[in-house]
Amino acid sequence: MATKSWASGTRVAKSDHSKPKAGELAYGKGDILTIVETGTGKQHYKARHNTTGEEGLVAATNVREREAICVDPSLSLMPWFHGKISGPEAVSKLLPVEDGLFLVRESIRHHGDYVLCVSYSSQVIHYRVIYQDSKLTIDNTQYFYNLLDMIEFYSKHKGAIVTKLLKPKEKEGTKSAELELSKTGWLLDIRELTLGGSIGEGEFGAVYEGDYMGQKVAVKNIKCDVTAQAFLEETTVMTKLQHKNLVRLLGVILHNGLHIVTELMAKGNLVNFLRTRGRHIIEDVCEGMEYLESKRLVHRDLAARNILVSNEGVAKVSDFGLTKLDCKASDNAKLPVKWTAPEALKKEKFSTRSDVWSYGVLLWEMFSYGRQPYPKMSLKEVKELVEQGYRMEAPEECPPSVYALMRCCWEAEPRKRPSFQKLQEKLERELTKQQPWENADPGLNPRSSVSACFRL
Ligand code: ADP
């Protein structure tokens, strides 16, 4: 059965194939072909010609991978942008006039505005592009977030101007990135992209999940002209690098600024991954401790180092070395001071509630990714300060609800701390409030908002 898969992506023809048999695709050497289906035999692919749009079979041996784009500072998303030049200079650049030849310049008279200069019918027409309310407009009807969008629009529609923009007049020393991307096969087709929900917030714009010809992809959209240009350079570097442990670039789309399309990493970023897994570990540990509590057993050494994780990701409480029936301690010297409740340290009074104290410290360890509790403090200092009411601060980016839970576990008065049964109920109740996707598979949550992932 043929599989619809874009995983094999775009290919480049190695040689001419100008006399195709029935069902085959015609192409020339260097033409860019997009694989639409890979057969099981892998001898032939069903491919689409990126220029002619025709579809047909191509021999797998007659295509090769795309080549990397050279990192070249002259590569520009806006080769038609000439900066601060005067009207007459723009005219001289657009000579000999050719219908639809255009450039954009910065207005000298109106600071912050631009001028679109277009050749038409043996003359050059200058359209003032007004910048107002963070948007650009020529006719106060059609508004654009940036020049890229504006040029894209007037290349497809005549709108209020005299002709569609047909050919950019490139500034000396610049090369059209669009042309280069298209020639090398890195330019993807917006029509093949279906955008889904947002999966992250980058510094320069949102990241969405999507589908590109059957493949799940992540799409970063950069709207600002200048930032898009900076990202173009990052992207050209990515065209050179292919490794199983580097996120793979699938290509870019020039529409509404720049869309960078990469493979989708379904489990999202590591911070989220650790935090969502953490949620389950916390639950597992709490359940184990609730069981000990029901047996009236006290662990006395509950800490992250004593939680082991199975192949299936189940966390189990281990090291029962100190476990005793609810009673007094016998060997104070061996106590894990930073994890032990003050009454246990001072009066050797161990109980399930002193285990709850340790559980709070374990939560702190989880949320600081295994940091040593009370960083930089000696055991003596910890003993004294905690006795006086000092408590650790929340780990960086720890959701307030989790920190609140830690603080409950660190109540000075053991009776005021919740039991494991109560903690368990609280966790269970709060976790069912999660979004359906958060319960389905904790690792599958690719959201970047940490607090959204761990609500207690
Ligand atoms: P920026 O570099 O603009 O700050 P990032 O590339 O760091 O943006 O992306 C922001 C967030 O979007 C990431 O932390 C992650 O949650 C999500 N994200 C980005 N790329 C992918 C991807 N390929 N697959 C899944 N999630 C992604």
TrEMBL record:
Domain SH3 residue range list: 6-68
Residue ranges annotated for the SH2 domain, each copy included: 80-169
Enzyme class: transferase
UniProt subcellular location: Cytoplasm
InterPro entries registered for this protein in UniProt: Kinase-like_dom_sf (IPR011009), Non-receptor_tyrosine_kinases (IPR050198), Prot_kinase_dom (IPR000719), Protein_kinase_ATP_BS (IPR017441), Ser-Thr/Tyr_kinase_cat_dom (IPR001245), SH2 (IPR000980), SH2_dom_sf (IPR036860), SH3-like_dom_sf (IPR036028)
Catalyzed reaction equations: L-tyrosyl-[protein] + ATP = O-phospho-L-tyrosyl-[protein] + ADP + H(+)
Alphabetical UniProt keywords: ATP-binding, Cytoplasm, Kinase, Lipoprotein, Myristate, Nucleotide-binding, SH2 domain, SH3 domain, Transferase, Tyrosine-protein kinase
EC number: 2.7.10.2
GO-annotated cellular components: cytoplasm
Compositionally biased tracts (Polar residues): 446-456
Record-linked SMART domains: SH2, TyrKc
Segments for region (Disordered): 1-21, 432-456
Protein kinase domain residues: 193-438
Residues given in the record as ATP binding sites: K220
Molecular function per GO: ATP binding; non-membrane spanning protein tyrosine kinase activity
Family membership: Belongs to the protein kinase superfamily. Tyr protein kinase family.
PANTHER family the record matches: TYROSINE-PROTEIN KINASE
Name recorded for this polypeptide: Tyrosine-protein kinase
Species whose genome carries this gene: Oncorhynchus tshawytscha
